[in-house]
Amino acid sequence: MSSEDSIQHDDVKKTKLLLIGNTGDGKSSLGNFILKDNKFETSDDAKSVTQETSGCYGEDDRSDIFVIDTPGFNDSEGGRDKDRQWNQMISYIKEQEEIEAIVIVFNFTNAKPLYNFTATIKMICKIFPISDFWEHVCIVWTRCYCCTPEKKLVRQIESRKEKFLLEFEKLAKETTGDEIIKIPMFYVDSCPDEDDDNSRSEEEIEMLLTWACSLLPINVERVVKNGLENEKIVIEEKEYTEVVEVKNGFVKLKTEYMRREKRIRYDGSVTYSDWELTKTKYKIKPISRIIEKYINYD
After folding, report:
1. Model pLDDT for residues 30-65, shown as the tens digit of each residue
2. If DSSP states are collapsed to H, E and C, what string results for the chain?
3. Mean pLDDT over each residue of the chain, to the nearest integer
4. Above pLDDT 90, what percent of the chain?
5. Looking at the chain, which terminus has fewer C-beta neighbours within 10 angstroms, N or C?
6. In this predicted structure, what is the pLDDT of residue 10?
7. Long-range own/partner contacts, residues 216-219 (CB < 8 A, 24 or more apart)
């Protein structure tokens, strides 16, 4: 965002939305639909277009709305690139004066939207260590096509509500200890055909913004101090002994000592480094002592 844009919006009551979701679920398209302008690059390709977190204001009656688009953190690359994206997102959030709403974006046509995404939501909870975290969260279902017959759409919406509100109640209890939460859900077609009547989606966005504007802002000074510092490193060690020579009633033993790092990451996932050889020791022992050891062991 340019300094000119910043000055233009300094005296305006702003509402900021943070979009979080899987790659390909339509975060960037939703951001454009909310802002009524093509601010974010989009693609029909399964690979993520958004590589860094960025935000934009809308135009005209959406000039007080600021949408923050993020990469899909479920991308298969993971590792260091994923860490870089998390860190860049956190740094970007730090630069904001406030954020009102965290918008979790799901694809309405995906039968298992929470698959491989629960860890991301848990990490967002850690980034926003506030007692009323879930009061700032809503779900927007994209690709809720406006051409779908109304009765069929109503049935599908009720099915989503019944199933996923229970899932999020469970998730809330695991993350913040909240027993009961009510998460607003909105259903939009953010990429309708030009001649389609998409007034239902527009009304859903109006309701989303009304809800978001009613929230007290999240203090971003508290947001990121937990960040990625919660990664835990455990050193694992093992040793491997083998016979390298038998001669004149003696056995020459070779013992290799190995170690690796086990990293329990901020999102709950576990990664391991390769085993590294730290030292090698040789010992010569009488065969009788080796045999005695195994006899006693048995």
Report:
1. 999 999 999 998 876 656 677 899 999 998 899 999
2. CCHHHHHHCCCCCCEEEEEEECCCCCHHHHHHHHHCCCCCCCCCCCCCCCCCCEEEECCHHHCCEEEEECCCCCCCCCHHHHHHHHHHHHHHHHHCCEECEEEEEEECCCCCCCCCCHHHHHHHHHHCCCCCHHHHEEEEEECCCCCCCHHHHHHHHHHHHHHHHHHHHHHHHHHCCCCCCCCCEEECCCCCCCCCCCHHHHHHHHHHHHHHHCCCCEEHHHHCCCHHHHCEEEEEEEEEEEEEEEECCEEEEEEEEEEEEEEECCCCCEEECCCEEEEEEEEEEEHHHHHHHHHHHC
3. 82
4. 28
5. C
6. 58
7. 216/100, 217/16, 217/97, 217/98, 217/99, 217/100, 218/98, 218/99, 218/100, 218/128, 218/130, 218/136, 219/98, 219/130
Is the model's pLDDT at 139 over the cut of 90?
Answer: yes
> What is the reported pTM?
0.72
> What domains does the chain contain, in order, with CATH numbers?
3-229 (3.40.50.300), 231-297 (no CATH)
**For the residues 183-199, what does the mean pLDDT come to?**
87
Instruction: Return the pLDDT at 47.
Output: 60
State residue 233's pLDDT score. 73
Token readout for 127 is 């980034």
